[in-house]
């Protein structure tokens, strides 16, 4: 275990090395009485004062050290102090890995610096907190509470402004979009565009990962539109290929085995309304041709019939694929793509929605409590700060759907009224492992994608290296990368949660 002391160099420490009658200073006190393998010093003082201090402290306690010069606009600027301190903590973990035992010294520096150490120790970087004084020496600081990390970056950047904003928070403007929970600027931009396009009678294409809320947005667009018909959601990927035509466009009695009566398809059901075609990239090419006819002519032909039927349907489509790549690879019709993409909206993944996780956790808890309140013996659940922090720091490859199902699992298995960190850990699903099939013998059919295959391989080996290595540097060496910085870049590119592993 590598024991690392991280601290700011305070004015009292500098004065002690300059011969002033202030004692030895809090840092020297700590190094005199406790053992550390290394010290990470942070300072914004000029080098002419810091270098003599380092020589002085080395004579008293020859503990190896690293010095980090960082510029502060003010020694009480919470936001700057937080970002600097967090980056130094991450640097320690990057260098020495999970077997690192951190200690934060509260006494050197300003009260704002001490407050930030407490916040970091209780949220992102579990650590021992120590304090020292001439009267009582060095002691472990007791902070008997947990802190939820969800608002820390913005609160620390602008404490007063953010508190005012939270206390005066406005509700969602439009009732049509009231079920979309957000604070993130990324989602706010999508909501604004969706509201604008809702009143226009044009096709809309949503692109985004599974579980990002595409159907919720599609429904909101329909509700805000002027269309009086039904909203018909269809998951194209869930329909058997042999039944897609019948499901979408209907069939005549006797058109195929088990076609015992005439049946209207989803497009006729959505007449005067909106049809939502989720996973549209899964449609077979022959069905894409028929869909193009609906867009161009406003007509459908039931399977087994020759006559066409007029329909007035607005199409909102969604995909988790990159349809531009699908078009270039010949798997999706270019003419259909341009018919659908009159309005194009890209939904960000949950991990990209800064500030939304806390809102979504609270809303999901509320909904799940409502779902279960009539169950005999059910107790409404709340969530502990530790459990909340675990949710806030998870990567969520399944996005909002995965978050909600994780909370459902935790609430089902928990007898108490508070979901603990352990409850959430047990409810989280393990990451998907390696597929057994040989990657060199994948069939070159319509589902093959070389970029996706490369991404799959990179994710697999990056995750293996991070699991087997103690540090980022070692992980980089295992996969043949020149440095841990390069490893970090690869991890970001392929969506591997490298930083969360070190917290």
Write a structural description.
This protein is of the alpha/beta class and 503 residues long. 45% of the residues lie in helices and 13% in strands. It contains 22 helices and 15 strands. A 6-stranded mixed beta sheet has the order 3-2-1-4-5-6. Helix 5 links the parallel strand 4 and strand 5 (128-133). Helix 15 packs across helix 17 and helix 17 packs across helix 18. It is elongated and about 100 Å long.
Task: Describe this structure in a few short sentences.
The protein has 22 helices and 15 strands.
What labels describe this entry?
6-stranded mixed sheet, Helicase, Ruva Protein, domain 3, elongated, Rossmann fold, alpha/beta, about 500 residues, 15 strands, 22 helices, 4 domains
Q: Would you report the number of β strands? A: 15
CATH topology of the largest domain: Rossmann fold
Poorly predicted sequence stretches spanning 5 or more consecutive residues? 150-175
**Major β-sheet profile:** 6 strands, mixed
Give me the secondary-structure category. alpha/beta
The geometry reads as elongated
Indicate the percent of residues in helices. 40-55%
Count of helix runs: 22
CATH architecture assignment of the largest domain:
3-Layer(aba) Sandwich
Taking all Cα atoms into account, the compactness measure Rg is: 29 Å
What is the count of structural domains? 4
Report the span from N to C terminus: 16 Å
Beta-strand portion reads 5-15%
